[in-house]
Specification:
The chain is an alpha/beta fold. The chain has a single domain, classed as Purple Acid Phosphatase, chain A, domain 2, CATH 3.60.21. The protein is built from 4 helices and 12 strands, in the order βαβαβαββββαβββββ. The strands form 3 sheets. It has a 5-stranded mixed beta sheet, with helices on one face. The protein has a 5-stranded mixed beta sheet with strand order 4-5-8-10-9, with no helix packed on it. The chain is globular and about 40 Å long.
């Protein structure tokens, strides 16, 4: 069993509210637009981190984190990228690979809009945790937490904070 905290679009912002949930987790996954490596360094001081870079991230972040991160945790195949689209509207860069080798969970960020939705054609769950940072058009800061246990996704929770 692994407790996962999924966040995206920090844009250089991290606070005690985020870190409280980092402490709850066994692993933290960051779906890009980190903004400043101080964010990921702070998370890595507390928990293991899997991350991808986003479109606003500089060459330093791009040298530390990949564009795509494919991995398996607790028998669940995961593909995380920053710009990935949604079921029925996947980004052209990932569309063919998704069809040929779909993961169980496909994660993207970028939109600042929290969405969790099934793709029945590809038999996967799409997750976008929204944005937990304070920069962008979103009105509410969001992230997701859930448990992976023996091939199952359990106890999915949305975490919301007002934007400061």
């Amino acid at each position: 069993m692994k407790r996962i905290l999924l966040l995206s679009d920090t844009h250089g912002y991290i606070d005690e509210q985020i870190l409280k949930h980092v402490s709850w987790s066994d692993e933290v996954w960051h779906a890009g637009d980190i903004g400043a490596l101080e964010v990921t360094d702070r998370i890595k001081e507390l928990k293991p981190l899997r991350a991808v870079y986003g479109n606003i991230d500089d060459s330093t972040a791009r040298s530390e984190f990949p564009l795509d991160n494919r991995f398996e945790v607790e028998g669940v195949a995961v593909w995380m990228t920053h710009i990935g689209g949604y079921p029925g509207r996947y980004d052209a860069r990932v569309r063919d690979d998704l069809r040929q080798n779909p993961p169980r969970i496909f994660i993207s960020g970028h939109s600042h809009i929290l969405k969790v939705m099934p793709d029945k054609k590809l038999n996967l769950i799409h997750m976008n945790p929204g944005a937990i940072g304070i920069h962008g058009f979103h009105k509410v800061r969001t992230m997701l937490r859930f448990v992976l246990d023996n091939g199952q996704i359990k106890n999915l929770e949305v975490i919301e904070y007002p934007r400061k």
